Amino acid sequence: MSEQVWRFIIFWGVWLLVPILVDLTTAIANVVGVLAMRYRRRRLYRPLTYYPFISIVIPVYNSEETLEPCLRSIAAQDYPLDRMEILCISNGTTDNSFGVFARLQAELPLHMRWHTILNKGKAWALNAGIHLARGQYIFNVDSDVVLAPDAVRKVVEVFEVEPDMVAATGSIQVLPPPPDASLARRVLAECEFFEYLTAFHVGREHQTLLNNLYTLSGAFSIFRREALLETFLYSQLTVTEDTDLTFEFYERFRDKRVGAISTAIAYVHSIESLSALYAQRVRWQRGQVEVSARHRHLLKRPWWAFWGFNPRRVLLIDHTLSFPRAVWTFLLPVLVFFGYSLSLIVTTFIVLYFFYLGIDLLWVAVALSSAPPFAWRRARAAWWVLFLLPAYRMLVYWFRLSGFLHAMAEPGTWRVSDPMQQVRAGVADVQRRATQAYAALLASLK
Fold first, then answer.
1. Which of 309, 184, 195 is CA-nearest to residue 246?
2. Per-residue pLDDT tens for 190-243?
3. What is the number of alpha carbons within 13 Å of residue 170 lying toward its C-beta?
4. Which pLDDT does position 408 carry in this prediction?
5. Which of 28, 177, 203, 245 registers the highest number of CB atoms within 10 A of its CB?
6. 415 versus 301: which is more confidently predicted?
7. Full 3-state SS string of the chain
8. Is 57 exposed, middle or buried (0-12, 13-18, 19+ CB in 10 A)?
9. pLDDT for the residue numbered 11
10. Is the sign of the CA dihedral 236, 240, 246, 252 positive or negative?
11. Angle, CA of 180, 185 and 188, to the nearest 5°
12. Residues in a beta bridge with 220
């Protein structure tokens, strides 16, 4: 076999075709799974004739600016308000969040209670609220979330016709940025909007069909009360307590289901900056590694097992099979010095771009086919952002890889500095050490 043929096989086979085939197979499987899941839900659907009593737990930490929209969205639900209770759990709040709560308690037709706990941390607040809750279903809702008017009803409808479902996540959609936001923030917000849209209206619907949902979103999760109280609840031992609780459900309820309800929508604010996005994704990724280490026996399933919870396959795809992307970024340009033509390298990047753009367009089209009018209007207004999605997803991949490295090298925290801050901190540390060394040298010469 000629040298050129070997070069062709190595170039296209190892670093390009393998990840492309993995991503293409995943995309096709997701689309098929989504269509199957929607057919299943339509077949099971029936309107509510009985309205179970529910509890909504809201952890509050310095939420003065966001708590009012959250509570007003609950008051606007098309679910009977006398069949719900709202528990606001303060964990170290120092602003006027209680003043907002007290004003709305007198104004809104909601049964609301305020509780303050001594321990700080979202997990502590959620666990306290769960123990106080009396509802058949417990909703955990972040204080900066705004629920769609039919979100609660959509959740209860699914739980009532699917008795084997013990926990679920709603669909999270990203709100537009403020009108005075910079162009960079608007672009970032629209990319995040499309990312969440496809993740919840395609990816998690497919995971639900296979009973392989990896994370119950901390912003909007729902549980059967009796099942939730059989777990250890939210853990403080990881920076992603929602993922840890998801694994706990799979451990304790092997014959039950954990899923996503994409028709129940909660809106969250867009990320403020690239540094905030970096901190968020690093925390999520290191949480994935931490939780997997805490539940090692769940990793014993063979990665090729198709049905049921399989975190081993998720880790394989997220880490091992995604490694070639690092090669694309750094090594492909270097191949010019090994005899490959520059035109071949440029053509490769163009092919990769259009391949991943095609996958994104397919996912967005499938997601929008079941999305509410708000998402349609948003997508039409920001259609041009679709062409930036491949670059955005590559950027997120690097942020996640950084989270994997953080998990091996540093203790877990909720706040992670971005790379530029780390560089500045490193430079400042070198300057400080040099100043100390210079002062010590002068002292020794005196």
1. 309
2. 999 999 999 898 888 888 888 888 889 989 999 999 999 999 999 887 778 899
3. 30
4. 56
5. 245
6. 301
7. CCHHHHHHHHHHHHHHHHHHHHHHHHHHHHHHHHHHHHHHHHHHCCCCCCCCCEEEEEEECCCCCCHHHHHHHHHCCCCCHHHEEEEEEECCCCCCHHHHHHHHHHHCCCCEEEEECCCCCHHHHHHHHHHHCCCCEEEEECCCCEECCCHHHHHHHHHHHCCCEEEEEEEEEECCCCCCCCHHHHHHHHHHHHHHHHHHHHHHHHHHHCCCCCCCCCCEEEEEHHHHCCCCCCCCCCCCHHHHHHHHHHHHCCCCEEEEEEEEEEEECCCCCHHHHHHHHHHHHHHHHHHHHHCHHHHHCCCCCCCCCCHHHHHHHHHHCCHHHHHHHHCCHHHHHHCCCHHHHHHHHHHHHHHHHHHHHHHHHHHHCCCCHHHHHHHHHCHHHHHHHHHHHHHHHHHHHHHHHHHHHCCCCCCCCCHHHHHHHHHHHHHHHHHHHHHHHHHHHC
8. buried
9. 57
10. negative
11. 145
12. 141
Provide the percentage of residues in the chain whose pLDDT is more than 70.
80
- Label the pairing between strands 257-268 and 165-174: parallel
Nearest to 310 by CA among 319, 318, 301: 301
**Burial status of residue 333 (CB atoms within 10 A of its CB: 0-12, 13-18, 19 or more):** middle
Q: How far is residue 45's CA from residue 39's CA, in Å, rounded to a whole number?
A: 10
147 beta partners: 266
pLDDT, tens digit, for every residue of 363-418?
898 888 878 888 899 999 999 999 999 989 888 888 877 776 666 555 545 455 55
